[in-house]
Amino acid sequence: MNRGPYLFLGAFVILAFSWTAAILANQLGYGAVTPYYDDLAGQSFPAKQPGIVARGAQVYTDLGCATCHTQQVRRADLGSDLARGWGERASVGRDYIQEHTVQLGANHIGPDLRNVGARIEDVNSFYQILYSPSEDSSMPAYRFLFEETEITGEVSADALSVNSTTSHQVVPTERARSLVAYLAHRNDTYAYPETNFIPPEPEAEEAADAEEEGH
Amino acid sequence: MDSTSSNTPTSTSQPDWARIDASVKVPVLFFIYAAAAWLVTASVLGFIAAAQLVQPAFLADCAWTTHGRIVPLARNALIYGWGFNAAFAVMIWMVARLCRTPAPKWGATLVGGLFWNAGIKLGMAGIIIGQSTGHFMLEMPAYAAAIMFVSYGIIGAGVTVIFSRRREGNMFASQWYALTAMFWFPWLFSIAQYTLVFGSLRGTSQAIAAAWYGHNVYALFLGPIALGALYYLIPKRVGRPITQYPLAQIGFWSFVFFGSFGGLATLVGSPVPAWVQTVGISANFMLLIPVFAIAINLGVTLLSGSKAGGSGPALKFFKLSVLSFVAVGGLSVVLSMPSLSHTIQFTFVGEALDQLHWYAFASFAFFGAIYFMLPRLIVRPWPSGALVTAHFWASVAGAIMIIGSLVLAGFAQGAAINDIEGYPAFADVVAASSGYLVALALGYLTLIVGHLAFFVNVVMAIYQACFSKPSDSAETVFSAPAAMEVNS
Predict the structure, then answer these.
(1) Which three-class secondary structure state does DSSP give residue A45?
(2) Does residue B1 lie within any of the structural domains?
(3) How many CA atoms lie within 13 A of B48 on its CB side?
(4) What's the ipTM?
(5) Is residue B405 included in any domain, yes or no?
(6) Does B216 reside within a domain?
(7) CA B367 to CA B452: how far, in whole Å?
(8) Which of A7, B74, B228, B380 is most buried (CB neighbours < 10 A)?
C-alpha cells in the first residue's frame, strides 16, 4: 500500500460505505415514515406541533436541556423507564417525525421528559419547578426565564405563588411560556400499529436471544 | 532510529531535517500555541460544568452560563479548539517530514489557522447567546461552521501541496493515517452540516447522523492522526523499528472501517431501527482486531525498546496513550454486554468513554508529539523542566480522577435508576452519584493546573524562539534527541 491513489480509493470506499449504510439507508428506509392517519379519529398522528410548542422546542434546544434530560422511553427489558412511569409505552421513530430538532439526549442526570406533559398536568407546576426546583434536585433554578414586575391593577393570571412582595409579582417571560407549552405537549400516548406489538414476556431463553442480537 | 529496514519512517539517506522543520515552523508553532490556549479554556469550562453538577446554583442566574450551554462549550473547546489545532500541528509537521520535503513558502496555512480559530470563537459565542443547533458535536451555528469549513480547506490544501512534492515514494503507516484523516474530515463535516443543520433529515434519523458524525470525528480524524503520530514517533523515540510492521496495514484498514460504525452503539434502546444498534455493537466488537494489531505494533515496540529510549515526557505520554487506546477498545466491548449496558446506558459512563477516547488516548498522543517536535522547531530545549513535570503528573492525575469518577458516578446512577424500590424518587438517584461528582470537579481543577503549566511552557518557548538566538546548531540537536525534550 505504497501508492497514493490506492490509499485514497480505499479511504473513499470506506467513508462512502459507512455513509451509505448508516445515513442513506436509514433515510431511504425508515426516514420516509409518515404520520399515521386514524380513520376513527379523523386526524393524523403525531399531530403537527402548534407554533408555541415549536418555539418552546427552540428554547429547550438553546438552553441545552438535553444535556441532562433524555426524551426517549426504552422497552421494559432495557431499563426501568416504563416502571418509573416515564411513559405508557416505549418510544418509536414515528413519535419524532414532526420535530425540527430531535433532542433524544444521552444522560439521565434528570428524569426522562418524553411524557412529562402526561405526568404534570398543571402548567403552574412547570413554572414552579423552573423558578425554584426542589432543594434536593440537581436542576438549577431558571430565574432568567421569569421577570419581576410591579403589580398594576390586578395580579397577573399566571403570576407565580412565590414569596414576592405585595407590590411585585413574578411572571414567566415569553420564552418560559413557550418552553412550558412545549413541555406540556410532551405526551406520546397514541398507540401506533407498531407500538401495539407487545414483546413476548421475557422468558429466559427468548430474552437471552434478544440480548445477543443487541436489542 | 537509524535502522535501514523499511518499517521505520527513516530511510538510509538522511534528508535535511532542520530545513524541513524550519519550513513548517511558523504555522506549526501557531497551531501549538492555539491548541494550548484552547486546552486551558476547555478545562476551565469543564470545571465550571462539573461544579454545576455539584452545586446547581453555580453561575445559574444567567442564561449565558447555564449548565446546558457550558457543557457543549467545554466539548467544542476541547475537540475543535485543542484537538484540531494539535492535530493540524502534528499533521503538517509529520507529513512534511515523511515526504522528506520542505514545505513551500505559503502563508495561507497560517491564515487558514487564524480563521479556523476565529470560526470556533464565533461558534462558541453563538452557543453562549442561544443559537446552538442542538446536535451533538455540531452545536456551533452554521455561520461559524462555514468559516471553519473554508479555513479547513486552506489548511488541508497546504498539506496536499507538501504531499504532492514528496521525495519519498514509500508511504509509511503514519502517512496513511494522517492523509486519509485529512481527506475524511471535510467530507464528514459537510455531510453532517448538510443533513442536520440545514435539515434534510427527519425524526430520529437525526440522532443516527449525529451519533455517526460525533464518533467519526474521533474514529476518522483525531484518532487516526494520534495513531499516525504514535507510529512515527515511538520508533524514533525508542530507537527501534515497529514490531510486526505488516500488521499495521490490517490495523489501519480495520480501525477505520469498523471505527466508522462505532458511534451507532450509543443508540442501543433508542427509537431507531434495531439493525442500527446491532451494527454499532458488532463494530465495537470487531474493533478488537485493530486494537490487537495496533497494540502489538506500538505496545511491543515500546516495551522492547524502553531501555534504549530512556525516559522523557514524550515517551511517558506515548506509553499512557497506547495503554488508553487498548483500554478504551476493551471497555467498549465489555460495556456493550447486555448485563452491563442495561445499567450504564444514559449515565456518566458514556462521557467517561468519550474522555478516554479524546483525552487519555488522543490528547496524550498529541502531548507527546508536541514535546518531541517543539524543541526541534525552535532548536532549543523546553524552557522549564519543572513545568513539563507538573503538566505530566497533573494530566495523569486529572485524567484518572475524571474518568474514574465518571465511571463510578455512572454505575451508581444507573444502578439507582434501575432500582425503583431502593430509589423511588429521582432525587434519591441524584444523591447516589453526587459524591463522585465532587471528585470530577477536583479532577478538572487538577487538569487546569497541568494545562496552565503546559501553556506557560509553550508561550515561553515560542517567546524565546522569537527573541533570542539558539544556543546550539541543528546538528547538536539531532544527535541527542532525548536531551531536547526537556531542559534538564
Answers:
(1) strand
(2) no
(3) 20
(4) 0.90
(5) yes
(6) yes
(7) 13
(8) B228
Q: Give the tens place of pLDDT for each residue, A13-58.
A: 999 999 999 988 888 887 788 888 888 888 888 988 899 999 999 9
Give the A window 134-173 contacts with B, CB below 8 Å.
134, 136-144
- What's the rounded mean pLDDT across residues A182-193? 90
Please say whether the beta carbons of B288 and B336 come within 8 A. Answer: no
In this prediction, residue B106 carries a pLDDT of 80
- B346·A70 Cβ contact <8 A: yes
Pairing between strand A36-38 and A43-45?
antiparallel
- For residue B419 the three cell numbers come to 432500582
Report if residue B409 sits inside a domain: yes
Cis peptide bond prior to A46, omega within 30° of 0: yes
Task: Verify whether the Cβ–Cβ distance B180 to A11 is below 8 Å.
Answer: yes
Considering only alpha carbons, which residue of chain B is nearest residue A134? B427
Name the residue of chain B whose CA is nearest to A97's CA: B203
3-state secondary structure of A155: coil
Please count the structural domains in chain B.
1
Alpha carbon B444 to its chain centroid, in Å, reads 17
> Domains in chain A, start-ordered, CATH in brackets?
38-140+176-196 (1.10.760.10)
Any CB–CB contact under 8 A between A19 and chain B?
Answer: yes
> Helix axis angle, B364-378 relative to B84-98, nearest 10°?
60
Name which of B57, B202, B269 is nearest A78 (Cβ-Cβ).
B269
The reply to whether residue B205 touches residue A80, judged by beta carbons under 8 angstroms, is no
DSSP assignment letter at A194: G
The predicted-structure confidence for B450-477, as pLDDT tens digits, reads as follows 999 999 999 999 999 888 766 555 444 4
Residue given cell 454505575 in the structure block? B411
* Contact (Cβ atoms closer than 8 angstroms) between residue A106 and residue A70: yes
The list of chain B residues with pLDDT below 50 reads: 1-6, 11-12, 474-483, 486-488
Interface of A with B in 61-80 (CB under 8 A): 61-68, 70, 72, 74-75, 78-80
Using CA coordinates, name the residue in chain A closest to B209.
A23
Q: B406 vs B50, B72, B129, B209, B409, CA distance in Å?
A: 10, 17, 29, 26, 5
Q: Which range marks the domain in which residue B450 is found?
A: 17-484
Element (H, E) at A147: strand A146-150
CA distance B254 to chain A (A): 10
CATH number at residue B50: 1.20.210.10
Cβ contact B69–A63 (<8 Å): yes
